[in-house]
Amino acid sequence: MMRKTGMDRTMNIKTTFIILAITAIVASCTSTGESGISSLATFDSAYAQADKARKRASKAGVEWRDTSKLLADSKKANASGDRETAMNLVREAKLQSDLAISQVKENREFLEKVPYYNANSTPEEDLENTQGFFRWKFPDLTNEEFSNGFYALDENLRENWLAIEEFPPYFPAIDEGETLWATPFNNGNYYGNCFGYAGVADKYPRWDRKIGKVITLEMDINGCRVRNGEPPFDYGKSTELMAVAAYMAYKSRGKQINVEIPEDDPRALEAYNEGKEFFYSRRGQLNMACYQCHFDTAGKWLRTNMLGTAFGQTSHFPVYRSKWGSIGGLHRRYKGCNKQVRAKPFDLQSETYRNLEFFHTYMSNGIVMNGPGARF
Predict the structure, then answer these.
(1) Which of 109, 145, 296, 374 is the least buried, fewest Cβ under 10 Å from its Cβ?
(2) CB 241 within 8 A of CB 247
(3) pLDDT in tens, 125-155
């Protein structure tokens, strides 16, 4: 056997280093990183992976707010020849979707630790525990005061609100709603033929046993129109829909919220529990749940806004918000909250939001209705 010289050993060492360096370079080039997309992947294959992950998150109801935009922007960047930017956007979209999916599993563990959530508790037990918590946290507030939201918690905010209430910005909507209520449809019928009288908002949302779904006031207003040969109002754009809802809320003032969950229909309980789970589950890029703002931290400031209590929160809808410059429904507020935590919002009057409203409003049973309201 030929004996190796010092030069041979040096060559072997150099060769080894070269091989290791090449291996490292190849590994870095083909590294998938956190997104799971290889840097050697074509844009089309990378986009397909990211979009597949987005669809999984969407199907699970946990897609983040900006994921679709990232994918759309990646296509534009790729079309303009900027592959590096396009691939970075695709990776970010893929990573967002993967993290959104992981939230589903993490929420199961998270919910077990939330002191206010019990998957096996009855609606009656939830009601007693929720209202008991807020009466303990704010012992000086009456039911009527809870319906005033954070205006009951801060004297300066209350004074500003009372000044606004001297010339309420929602009055034009009430007047328009009253006119629409008194205007016959083309077939001669009125809204009153459907509802009997206007002051029934305290019963909503309601469970429809026939179709097995939660029905909101807005849905019943549109249902009344359709049954009488009129086109339904657009849930997102119609000022007339909010006007009728505002008038009905106004005529319901002074009544106590009285949402019923029929004990003999398991579908109603399932819808209620889905709404409850949504309320307590974290979502979006900020990984926040509804309850995190409106239970322990209720009455505290978040930037320039005071956080209201979940108890009584639905009593003043529809509401005129200065931020909107118009009157809007509870689902519009849900969408805004979802966007703020960077979660993709659901459609207005979607089953998800209707079930959430079912739970959310039931938690305020016994609270005095005072809608429509005015908020900043």
Answers:
(1) 109
(2) no
(3) 999 999 999 999 999 998 889 999 889 999 9
